[in-house]
Design a protein that fits this description.
The complex is a heterodimer. By secondary structure, chain A is an all-alpha fold. Chain A contains 6 helices and no strands. Chain B is built from 2 helices and no strands. Classes of the chains: A mainly alpha, B mainly alpha. Chain A binds chain B through residues 36-37, 39-40, 43-44, 46-47, 50, 53-54, 57-58, 61, 71, 75, 78-79, 82, 85-86, 89, 151-152, 154-155, 158-159, 161-162, 165-166, 168-169, 173-175, 177, and chain B through 1-3, 5-7, 9-10, 12-14, 16-17, 19, 21, 24-25, 28, 31-32, 35-36, 38-39, 41-43, 46.
Chain lengths: 195, 51
């Protein structure tokens, strides 16, 4: 059961990292840049992944107990509720019949719809874990090397997001509703403003 | 603002990695509130209600 709990925490963190990497792929290989609501959903995903990553980070230093699991998955629930609200808002913005939606569809659904699905799954997994899989006492988690890598991957993806958002927003306070280019490079004169 | 929140999130993960659990908790809550406020700004801005 200890191995299962570790595996779930590692899988949850990596799954969210995979979604964030997919968003990077869409940003660079697709035709549209992420809008402000897309960025808010990325932030909420990092908050969701921070919960299980917290448990893994704790397990590198000491035994983890029920209170650590409660804190980690509680954090995931908070992030998922916020993220679900943001993605539901974006789904509702494009719900009118005939609206093409924002960006390209992936497997028939737009990224914000997939994001809503991800946040609901995070809520379900976190709730089920808190209800059914809490340990009775403190335990030492296995696979510490893998846990170390998983936490560092999340850290690297989050830092990369900070750089990308800064490139998108430049020295402006907010992202434009429909971004057409990287405003930092436009502000610095390294590229011409697009339309 | 968005870049600043990602910097906060990165700092939170670094605090977790370094074992500063109290600081990580504070940064998590600040990030959560900051994301909520930015969401509120984007929702109300289109209605002309944003501060």
């Amino acid at each position: 059961m200890t191995a299962l709990r570790t595996g779930i925490a590692q899988f949850c963190t990596l799954a969210v990292c995979g979604v964030l990497l997919g968003a990077f792929y869409e940003q660079f290989a697709g035709t549209v840049l992420p809008c402000p609501l897309c960025m808010l959903q990325r932030m909420a995903m990092v908050l969701c992944a921070a919960g299980p990553a917290w448990i893994l980070a704790l397990s590198l230093r000491r035994r983890v107990g029920p209170d650590d699991y409660a804190r980690g998955y509680g954090a995931s629930v908070l992030g998922a509720v916020l993220g679900a609200a943001v993605s539901a808002r974006q789904v509702l913005l494009h719900i009118e019949p005939g609206d093409p939606g924002y960006g390209e569809a992936v497997l028939g659904l737009h990224l914000y719809t997939w994001a809503f699905v991800v946040f609901v799954v995070v809520l379900l997994v976190s709730g089920l874990h808190l209800m059914l899989a809490m340990p009775a006492k403190e335990e030492r988690l296995p696979w510490q090397g893998a846990s170390r890598v998983v936490v560092l991957v999340l850290l690297a993806i989050t830092a990369l997001n900070a750089v990308l958002v800064f490139a998108l927003a430049g020295f402006h306070a907010y992202l434009p509703d429909d971004p057409t280019g990287y405003r930092l490079f436009e502000d610095l004169g390294w590229s011409t403003p697009s339309e | 603002m968005a870049a600043l929140i990602f910097v906060l999130l990165t700092a939170m993960l670094v605090a977790m990695w370094k074992g500063k659990d109290g600081l990580a908790t504070i940064l998590f809550l600040i990030s959560l509130v900051a994301v909520a406020l930015l969401f509120n700004h984007h929702v109300t801005d289109s209605l002309g209600l944003s501060l």
